[in-house]
Amino acid sequence: MATNAAAGDETRDTPTGSTSPAPxxxxxxxxxxxxxPSRTDSLAAQLSTVVGGPVGDHAMIGRSRFWTPLxxxxxxxxxxxxxxxxxxxxxxxxxxxxxxxxxLDWNNGRQYVAxxxxxxxPLYGAEHxxxxxxxxxxxxxxxxxxxxxxxxxxxxxxxxxxxxWLAMEVSNAWQGLRLPGALPVVVYxxxxxxxxxxxxxxxxxxxxxxxxxxxxxxxxVALSPLVLVHVFTNFDALATAFAATGLLAWSRRRPVLxxxxxxxxxxxxxxxxxxxxPIVVLCLRSDSRQRLPALWEQLRHNGSGRMAGLRExxxxxxxxxxxxxxxxxxxxGLTWLLVNLPIAAPFFDGWREFxxxxxxxxxxxxxxxxxxxxxxxxxxxxxxxxxxxTPGVLNAVSLLxxxxxCAAIGYIGLTAPRRPRVAxxxxxxxxxxxxxxxxxxxxxxxxxxxxAVLALPHRRILLAWMTIDALVWFxxxxxxxxxxxxxxxxxxxxxxxxxxxxxxxxVCLLIVRQIYRPAEDLVRRDGVDxxxxxxxxxxxxxxxxxxxxxxxxxxxxxxxxTAAR
Length: 565
What we know:
Blueprint: E1 12-13, E2 19-20, H1 37-40, H2 42-48, H3 69-89, E3 94-96, E4 102-104, H4 110-113, H5 120-126, E5 140-143, E6 149-152, H6 158-176, H7 184-210, H8 219-222, H9 225-230, H10 236-251, H11 255-268, H12 276-285, H13 291-301, H14 306-314, H15 319-344, H16 348-351, H17 353-360, H18 368-376, H19 392-415, H20 422-436, H21 448-455, H22 459-471, H23 473-481, H24 490-516
Antiparallel strand pairs: 1-2, 3-4, 5-6
């Protein structure tokens, strides 16, 4: 085919005889193994019509030089983070009081009417950060509702408290440089928000890496309605970043690094430490189907070979996953201890304030216990209590319910016909903790977002739950506003909490259903096992003869064989 050189046409003849604007790339491989949501998901297919419809049959997947799925998701996340900041910006507006002093405009319950409330703003003064105080060392006295004085300290875990202190130091340095500024609390809020935004971007990045062939599932982490409402409500994005990167390290068979990251997450919020339980259960299940029964017989009948058999057992298939789980648990515990010791040793009373408050704290408005009280007038397990009284029975009941839930999840993990995926069990454990706990602060729902996307990649279902959860913020704010200021009755808020809890329970039930029906699991199609599993990915899934029969896997009909990728 002739080219028009005189016209400056730079097209060249390709081997197939077609005209190309440039020589084709030498590597013509296509990532056809990647899931194509516009063809496999009805919601994505409908949305794709905005940009030309589903991807073509002969499209070269994964050939874009710049706009990779990860970069697109990070761009989405930046947009949603900006919108999240805009949603909170109403609470950092400034005004003047009667004396002409510049103050925050929280007049007439603005923080509730505008639904812009964020703990970050009041904590700046409540934790005495405005005084330049070092957390856990600074103490102050408050008068409780019973009229008794109480000595108070920073009420957050170590890394969250130090993050607030660091944000305060950076905001003070900014103002010291005489750069454009505002009220100290406004500068502090914006500095804290930048760090939290970066932490959520890390969460999105790690979730995309953990999604395997279904990389586009992680787009819902970036585009979650909960991000719009709660990513800057408190400091929980720090913990989600550590939890997600800890799972990423585990998926890459680096158990020590995984434990370190989860330990750091536990020093910011305790929930990342919960992720270790499911990992231990699934590593316990991974054993040698063929070697172990024969080994038991050798140990029983061959006395001279017992030591050799024991050595083989310790080096065998089962101990490798357990050794990895043990390394993760030990490294997490040591990391948590090393982070906490420098604070606990010199400022023990300040360090234990977080644990003391969680012990003495009563049922929060979001908890199922308060919901029951709201609709029935029930006085709680402990009866009427003063603010300084510890709800001992409530603490015991919530702990017992969580332990029972974990036992049930462990039973599911051991008896399912096929080893559950790591993300599935982890979501169940974290959801059980939130449902049974006496505290479910609104931003805690962020914990579930990346876990849900990895555990149950059904976009319509997850988007419905996340939207319901995000919408609870509206009756919450107007309940806090008070009926006397045209707010809503408590039952409007607690009724929304019931709907939220039911939505989370439905997600849990769907995950359990897929655990017992692994053929319905979208993640495990095309020979995929567990993208988050790490050492468990494509590991043997034995009958576990060393366990009681009640705890052994319930084998169903064999699944059709698929080629592993």
